[in-house]
# Entry
Amino acid sequence: MSEKAILITGVCGEIGQALLESFAEQNEQTVVTFDLKPLPDKLQGKSTHVEGNILDKDLLAQLSAEYEFEVIYHMAALLSTTGEHKPALAHEVNACGTVELLKMAAGQSQAQGKRVRFIFPSSIAVYGLPDLETKRKHYRIHEREWTEPTTMYGCTKLYCEKVGNYYSKYFLQLGKEEPVRLDFRALRFPGLISAFTVPSGGTSDYGPEMLHAAAQGKPYACFVRPDVRIPFMVMPDAVKSLLTLAAAPQENLSTRAYNVTSFSLSAEEFKEVAQNSFPKAEIVFRPDVKRQSIVDSWPADLDDSAARQDWGWEPDYDVERALGEYLVPNIRERYR
Ligand code: SER
# Structure
């Protein structure tokens, strides 16, 4: 009989690490983690770790034979800036890798006779506003508006939402009975900020990068204009949203991809916060044309009322608590 477990892919990324910490604290379930890299030292012993590539079908088949996955948190992905440097690779990993894992989860659901929950971090990058005027007018975006991504990352996220929905609702082999299907659920995250890890390869990274550089007294050149505004959320709320959505009764869900957010800040406001909290901060603005165009296409805010209504979503950290209780003290401590 194979062992029941939870699977976290991309565990070495920012969300993956925070998620594993949270499961390790509960210490209730077997957690299998998967990444190209070995586990960071501080996470050693907190999971059964498998080093490998999400595109390795044999390895996925082996994992599937060994474990009965109840919930899969599929965090492995290339982020939006890296994806623009390497669009073909971003497509391979983010789209093809996810589809391989969806197929595995579909097979497991059928074999277990139980819907495997597949939790997927989608993104603000699924949206694409055509110009700044439209972005000003359509300040707060609902799930069904402006899904016209401008990056390979955004395209793959939106595509995987659709394929996840397909495997959850429509997948049926010709001539066969209705199968037990997987249960795909996605969160469209805003920019995420952790006090304990620094992002790499994203386009919302200027927010966290500014704070982490300021705390170290390092000069920072922000790659977007001061007036740029997008939504953000801190990592404890990201983990909370993943766990709450995973636990929500299926009959309460009215969609398979939910916006979640906490607060919106402009890059100028980030700079003010960084300078007020870390007086040695040296921040200048040196916008990069490509990265600027990406954030200009992302909405200034997300309408997360569906998540609030359907499964009681509410962030614990508004902007004051996020900065005053979580980010500034922990970042200060980190670089002391
Ligand atoms: N944080 C991501 C990025 O910047 C967006 O979801 O790519």
User: Anything to note?
Assistant: The first strand starts at residue 3 and ends at 9.
